[in-house]
What does this fold into?
Amino acid sequence: MENFRQHLMKNLSSGRISEIMEIAERYYGQRAGSLPPEEKADILCSAMCITREDLDSVISGHSEVARTIKGHAFEVVFDSMMAANEIQCVEVGGDTDIDRVVNGHTLQLKTPYAKGCSEGIVSYKPHKTHGAKSGRESVGYYHRVCDFADYLVGLVSYDPFTVLIVPRESLPRVHEYSEYIQSPMYLKTDSCWTNQYWQLGIEKNMEFPGKLLSPGENECLPKSSSLMGLKSDYILRAIFIKDNFRIWDMNLRGFIREHVLFKMLEENRIQVYPPTVTGRKRPDKCDAALKTRGGRYVGFQVKGLTWSGTVFKGADTAIDCETQLSRGRVNDHPTQSRLYLDTDFECLIIAVDPPYSNTLSMHTFNRPDYRWNFYCVPMPRLRKHPDYPNRVSSHQYIPYRELQKYRIGPSWMETWMPERL
It folds into this structure.
């Protein structure tokens, strides 16, 4: 693995999952997704200079990550079941609401909505993933019956392997709008739709023992595997699918940045506090707070780079760091603006992961630098929005050479109150 790690470090430029997979497949001469789970985990860890325990902790410790992976892992399981029973299952790519087609029947695959489940009841949320955020905001949050897949295939359990296969006409409706499908919905786990594969034109008895899916004693991602009730291999296979790039590129990688930062602070015995201790009006716009040796709390926002906006011009290479919320509009509205106020936090920590650090260093200084780098930029140094000077601009464009003066190092660490012994 060490030889591959060195090979990866020399050839990786963006660290995106498609690039990682292409390098691995050229090196091993086989599909990356078919490699043993331990090797798949180590490939991801090598790319980000983290351990398996780090990767496992990030997946299992963040519901936003686990929820996304859980859904895609079920798709991998479903495909495996169909292949094991020699049934053709066509994957539908893109951002459509149809996941699979079997014998001409369109399917939407869903894992349970955990908070809605109870004894004998399983809950699913088949609402639209784009547009309105809730049913209160707009009825467009829900799916029209006529636009939905032919069947909802909802996971009940992996062992024994159990699914509900419900025709769209039989799905519960929104009370006030009967042409829309309810979300969340509540169904009996033991119903007339349980494992009724004949509806999909499948006449044979389906065989897929749950023990093939259940976690073993030596899982490479033990906490994540236990959380999802699924072998690590299915979790990793879900990540190693190029069409699922959002799992790694836009979700998991961001949480790894925060994990590595907080781990570094912990290793330096720096106490991290919840943002609420700062007393700010919008503490949820901070990611963490630290306490100076003088007793003052300082709020921080942590961001990564926007690679598509980074400009490579040799010594004049400049990074792009997106400094805005993920939802809302660019305006000065008190609650609906996606722009940060200049009072939301005092410093921006820009986290640059190893692939980015190395590529930027090679372009700017012509030397390798495959490691994590963190930079702390004070609020007065951030660009403000030209129309709303009380708000931070959506993007920060900073020459990479200039960014170095904000590098987090030993002297920065000495600024903060150490944790209590």
About this structure: The chain has a mean pLDDT of 93. DSSP finds eleven helices and 13 strands in the chain. The longest strand covers residues 151-158.
